[in-house]
C-alpha cells in the first residue's frame, strides 16, 4: 500500500515570509502520527496544503495515493478533518448540524452520532452559538470521527477540552488505529501525543528537525547528572570533559548536562569519594522544548530523514 501521506520537499512561502521549507516525510497506513511544534511553526500550513486549501510554492504531496489538488473531491470523501478553530453556523442545534453534515457524508447512522456525543458529553439539543469553546470542539470531533474515515487530520484537536474529555479523545484515536484508520494529529501538548502516537515529527520555524518514535527521541537525548562528593571539588576538573554542558559546582555537589558517553565524567569523579549519583533523562516536555528553542539533543541533525 502507498503511504497515507507522502510529502517531498514541500515548501510554502507567503511573499517574503516563511511558511514551510522542504518538508519531506511519510505517514504509513494505520499509523498515529504526531506532528509537533509551537504556534507559528508551520503545522497548520502543512495541513492546509494536505487539504488543498492552499497551494504549495514547490514540492509535492500525495494523500491516500491521490493528488490533493487534482483529486480533491475523491480525497475529501475519505478524510475526517478538524480545524484548529472549528466554525459552523451558530444558529443550529448541535444535533441538527451533525445530522446535516452526516447526510452530506452519505447518511451517517444516527446511532453513531449519539454514541460519540454521549462519550464526549455533548448536549445535542444546545444551539452551537451558546456552546463554550470546549463544547464546540466536541461538535468538531464528532463530525471528524462519525463516518470512520480512512484518514483523520486533526489540528490541535484537544483545544479547550477538559482533562476527562481529552482522555476520551485519546481513546477514540486508539480505537481508530485498531480499525485500520490513519491519524495525523498536530499538537503542542506533549502528553497526549506520547499517549497514542507511533511516531512523531517535530517542526520548528517551518523546518523538520526530528522524525522518530518517542522512545528513540528520548534515547537520543541528554542526561541530567547530579554527583555528591564527600569533600568539595573544583569545577575546573570537569569543565572541559567531553559531553559535559551547563556545569554547576557548589561545594560537594556537581550538576551538569551530559551528551554522549558518561565514561570521562565517571573517571574524573572516581578520583574523589562519591557519596551519591543520579542521572535522569529529561521528560518529554523538556525534550521537545529543547527542539523548539533550538537546543536539541546531540544527534538532532544526523537522524532527520
Automatic annotation (TrEMBL):
Q: Which UniProt keywords apply?
A: ATP-binding, Nucleotide-binding, Transport
Q: Which domain of life is it from?
A: Bacteria
Q: Which PANTHER family match?
A: ABC TRANSPORTER ATP-BINDING PROTEIN ALBC-RELATED (PTHR42939)
> What's one GO MF term for it?
ATP binding
Q: Which PROSITE patterns match?
A: ABC_TRANSPORTER_1, ABC_TRANSPORTER_2
- This protein is called ABC-2 type transport system ATP-binding protein
Where in the sequence is the signal peptide annotated? none
Provide the transmembrane region boundaries.
none
Amino acid at each position: 500500500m502507498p503511504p497515507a501521506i507522502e510529502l517531498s520537499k514541500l515548501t510554502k512561502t507567503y511573499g517574503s515570509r516563511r511558511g514551510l521549507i522542504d518538508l519531506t516525510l511519510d505517514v504509513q497506513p494505520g499509523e498515529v502520527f504526531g506532528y509537533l511544534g509551537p504556534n507559528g511553526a508551520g503545522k497548520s500550513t502543512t495541513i492546509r496544503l494536505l487539504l488543498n486549501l492552499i497551494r504549495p510554492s514547490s514540492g509535492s504531496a500525495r494523500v491516500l495515493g491521490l493528488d490533493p489538488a487534482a483529486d480533491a473531491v475523491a480525497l475529501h470523501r475519505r478524510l475526517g478533518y478538524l480545524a484548529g478553530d472549528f466554525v459552523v453556523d451558530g444558529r443550529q442545534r448541535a444535533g441538527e448540524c451533525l445530522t446535516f453534515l452526516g447526510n452530506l457524508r452519505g447518511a451517517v447512522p444516527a446511532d453513531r452520532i449519539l454514541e460519540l456525543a454521549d462519550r464526549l458529553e455533548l448536549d445535542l439539543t444546545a444551539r452551537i452559538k451558546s456552546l463554550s469553546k470546549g463544547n464546540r470542539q466536541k461538535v468538531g470531533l464528532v463530525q471528524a470521527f462519525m463516518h470512520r474515515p480512512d484518514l483523520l487530520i486533526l489540528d490541535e484537536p484537544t483545544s479547550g477540552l477538559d482533562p476527562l474529555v481529552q482522555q476520551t479523545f485519546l481513546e477514540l484515536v486508539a480505537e481508530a488505529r485498531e480499525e485500520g484508520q490513519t491519524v495525523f494529529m498536530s499538537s503542542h501538548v506533549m502528553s497526549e501525543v506520547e499517549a497514542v502516537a507511533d511516531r512523531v515529527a517535530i517542526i520548528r520555524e517551518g523546518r523538520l528537525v526530528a522524525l522518530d518514535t518517542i522512545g528513540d527521541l528520548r534515547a537520543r537525548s541528554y542526561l541530567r547528572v547530579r554527583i555528591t562528593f564527600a569533600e568539595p571539588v573544583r569545577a575546573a576538573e570537569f569543565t572541559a570533559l567531553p559531553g559535559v554542558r551547563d556545569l554547576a559546582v557548589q561545594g560537594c555537589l556537581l550538576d551538569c548536562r551530559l551528551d554522549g558517553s558518561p565514561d570521562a565524567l565517571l573517571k574524573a569523579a572516581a578520583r574523589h569519594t562519591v557519596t551519591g549519583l543520579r542521572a535522569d533523562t529529561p521528560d518529554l516536555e523538556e525534550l521537545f522544548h529543547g527542539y523548539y528553542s533550538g537546543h536539541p539533543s546531540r544527534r538532532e541533525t544526523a537522524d532527520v530523514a
